[in-house]
Amino acid sequence: MPVSPSPTFDLSAQHQFRQQLVAGLTQARNQGCLFLSISRDLPPIDPLLALAGLSDCGMDPQADYFYLEQPGTGMAIAALGALRTYTAEGCQRFQDVRHFCQTTFAQIFCLDGGHPRIFCHFTFHDRPTGHQGTSASRAILPQWQIHQRDQQVQLTLNCDVLLEPGEIDRLCGQWQRIWEHLQTLPPTFDIESVMVPTISLPNLTVQHQGFVRGVHTALKVLQTGEMEKLVLACAADITAPRPFSWEATLQNLRHHYPNCYLFSVRCDGGSTFVGASPERLVSLEQGVLTADALAGSSPRGGDRHQDQALTTALYHSEKDRHEHQVIVQFLSHTLKNLGLLIPPPGEPQVLKLANIQHLQTLIRATPHPAVHLLDILAALHPTPAVAGYPRAIAYEWMRQLETFERGMYAAPLGWVDCNGEGEFIVGIRSALLQGTMARLYAGAGIVRGSDPEREWQEVLLKLQALVSAIA
Ligand SMILES: C=C(O[C@@H]1C=C(C(=O)O)C=C[C@H]1O)C(=O)O
C-alpha cells in the first residue's frame, strides 16, 4: 500500500480538500492503485453521536455501517458506506476474507497518514440456514471511517480513483457537510433524547422447557466422557409498538457496560445486529496478540458483602474452574499449533459486569509474521466458550438441541488494517433488530456438574440485561 508524505493542507476547507483529493487521485492512479484513502485529525467527539448523525449529511440512511467501542479504554471505531464489499461462505471463508483484505489493501493509496481498515462480520455457522439474510462472512472497505484511540480522533475517507468530475464535486460537498456536522456535535449524547427502554421479556416457558431438556441430554453425553463441554443458547423474540433504534440501544448499553465491547452493524438483509460483549476473540495491536478465555459465571450480589461471597464462590468453584480451563487450554494449544510463542497463562481474574461476573484469563502470544489474524480467527472460531469441546461433537449436539439459527450470535466481528493488525470480538449478549421486532440471544456453557435450572437462570439474567437496554 503506497503512502505519500504528509502534506500541510487544511482539509477542513472545501477548496483545499478538493485540491488534495484531485492531487491524491492522480498520484494513486500513477501508482496503479484503485482506491485513495485520506485521513484528517479531528477534535474529540462522541463517535456514536457522529455516526448516528451522518445520515443527515447526504448519506443513504440504509447504508452499511459498523460500530465498535470499548468505553472503558476510549477505543471506538465507526464506519459508514461501502466502497468495496466481499461475501463468502463455507469452511474456507476466513481465508477467503483474508485474501480479499490483502488484495484490497494492496490497491489503496494512502495520503497523509491515512489508516484505512476493513470491517468484517461472520455468522456462527459457515453455511447458515434459514437465517435473516445475513451472509456467512462479509468484509467491507467503508467509504467513511472515524477512529478514536487515546483521545485521538481521525476521520478517513476512502474513494475510487476513477471519479468523474461530477463525483468529485459531490464528494467534496459531502466532506464539507460531514466536516460541519462533526464540528457542531454536542460533546456527548443528549440523554433526554434517548428512547427509554420499556419492554419486558415475553413468556419464555417454551424456551425454558427446551433449554432444560437440552441440558439434561447434554449432561448424559458429558457423563459418557465423549464430550467435555457444550454451550446451549436460546432466542427470545420481542415486538415493540415502534421501531427499535440501534443508536438508542447502544447508548443505553454503553452506560451499563462500559467494560464491554459495544457493537452494531447493519446486516445485508437490512436488519441491525447490536450488543455489548465482554469477550474479545483475538486482537493484534502494537505487536501484541491477545485472546480472551471467558467462561464460568455467577450473578452479582445485591450488596458488597454478598457480591464478594459470590466472587469467592465463583473463583473456587471446581465446576466453573474446569469449564474455564477447557478454554484456556484450547486457546493455548491452538495458538501454539499455529507456531506462536505463548508464555504460560496466569491464574484467572474475575471480570465484573453490571449484572454478572465471569472468570477471565488473557492469553498473550508473540505474533508470527506469516500467520495473519484471519488465519488465527479460522483456527479459533468457535471456541469452547461459545460451542463446546471437542468442537465437532459439540457442533452436532448444538445443531440437534438448538431450535433456532444462531445467525451472527456468538460469531466474530471486527476489523483488520493494512499492517495485519486488528481486533475481533465474539458477538454474544446480542440482539437482531428489524423494524419493530427484536430477537435476543443468550447461552450458557454446560459441563459435568451443571445444574439445568441454574444454567437457565444464567441465560435469563443475560436476556434481562439485554431487554432492559433495547429501545
Ligand atoms: C454463550 C454466552 O456466554 C459464554 C458463556 C459463559 C458461561 O457459561 O459461563 C460465559 C461467557 C461466555 O463465554 C452468552 O452470553 O450467550
Automatic annotation (TrEMBL):
<protein>
    <recommendedName>
        <fullName>isochorismate synthase</fullName>
        <ecNumber>5.4.4.2</ecNumber>
    </recommendedName>
</protein>
<dbReference type="InterPro" id="IPR004561">
    <property type="entry name" value="IsoChor_synthase"/>
</dbReference>
<feature type="domain" description="Chorismate-utilising enzyme C-terminal">
    <location>
        <begin position="208"/>
        <end position="462"/>
    </location>
</feature>
<dbReference type="InterPro" id="IPR015890">
    <property type="entry name" value="Chorismate_C"/>
</dbReference>
<comment type="similarity">
    <text>Belongs to the isochorismate synthase family.</text>
</comment>
<keyword id="KW-0413">Isomerase</keyword>
<dbReference type="InterPro" id="IPR005801">
    <property type="entry name" value="ADC_synthase"/>
</dbReference>
<dbReference type="GO" id="GO:0008909">
    <property type="term" value="F:isochorismate synthase activity"/>
</dbReference>
<dbReference type="Pfam" id="PF00425">
    <property type="entry name" value="Chorismate_bind"/>
</dbReference>
